[in-house]
Write a structure and sequence with these properties.
Layout (H helix, E strand, L loop, with lengths): L3 E3 L11 H6 L3 H6 L8 H6 L9 E13 L1 H12 L8 E12 L6 E7 L7 E11 L2 E5 L4 E10 L2 E13 L2 E5 L2 H4 L1 E10 L2 E10 L3 E11 L3
Antiparallel strand pairs: 1-2, 2-3, 2-12, 3-4, 4-5, 5-6, 6-7, 7-8, 8-9, 8-10, 10-11, 11-12
Length: about 220
């Protein structure tokens, strides 16, 4: 399953001088600094997106498992209001993930399209903003976001939950959603020169594992 990418010049409306636009680093290289070079090549290849650009890539693969617990099932109606979490279970679920930047800001946007058998495609939409150091916030609807610490570990790109926020009037107000949803862990790990794996878990200190999904993707020009 091939990946496709598009790298185009930033819009003149960004207001950046041409040399500065040309020298702009990928968003996640800015997040990781020197640790960017500790990522596997296949990971760097699909995180090349620069802020204030039209950079885009689509990767395709299969989610070997998409799962949630019986307790988590009770949370899904609430989570769907905010566009969070995948509401279905399944195995060997085809998926495509569209990564794109925007010419008028420094964020990276995701559209994860799950193709569950017998159901319309399910879109899980979010965007991620670098907020300093190795911290990013992944936002869903209504300004609700998850703060994440980003690290490079054994070639993998790893995101660890550092709490939830609600962006109100430009301020990120902490939300105690971790008491309800637990803590998230996400990684994208190299498999070989053209493939990577992805894993997400959501663990609650009392209720154990609430959500998980894992898959394998192909990245070919």
């Amino acid at each position: 399953m091939a990946g496709s990418n598009r790298t185009t010049a930033e819009s003149p409306s960004s207001g950046l001088p041409a040399p500065e636009r040309a020298a702009r680093l990928p968003v996640f290289q800015q997040v990781l600094g020197e640790d960017w070079h500790r990522l596997g090549e296949v990971i760097r290849r699909h995180y090349f997106l620069r802020g204030f650009s039209n950079d885009y890539i689509c990767v395709k693969g299969t989610m070997q498992e998409v799962w949630h617990s019986a307790i988590a099932k009770c949370l899904i109606p609430f989570a769907r209001i905010f566009g969070a979490l995948v509401p279905y279970r399944g195995t060997d679920v085809p998926i495509e993930v569209h990564y794109n930047a925007k010419p008028d800001d420094g964020t990276v946007h995701w559209d994860r399209v799950f193709h569950f058998a017998g159901r319309p495609p399910f879109h899980f939409l979010s965007h991620m903003e670098h907020v300093g150091g190795n911290d990013v916030i992944e936002f869903i609807r209504f300004g609700v976001g998850m703060r994440l610490k980003v690290t490079a570990e054994d070639g993998a790109l790893v995101f660890r939950d550092a709490g939830y926020v609600w962006r109100m009037f430009g301020a990120d107000v902490p939300l105690p959603l971790g008491l309800l949803l637990g803590r998230a862990y996400i990684e994208e790990r190299p498999v070989d020169a053209g493939h990577f794996s992805m894993r997400m878990t959501l663990n609650h200190p009392l209720f154990g594992e609430l959500f998980r999904y894992r898959g394998r993707f192909s990245l070919n020009d």
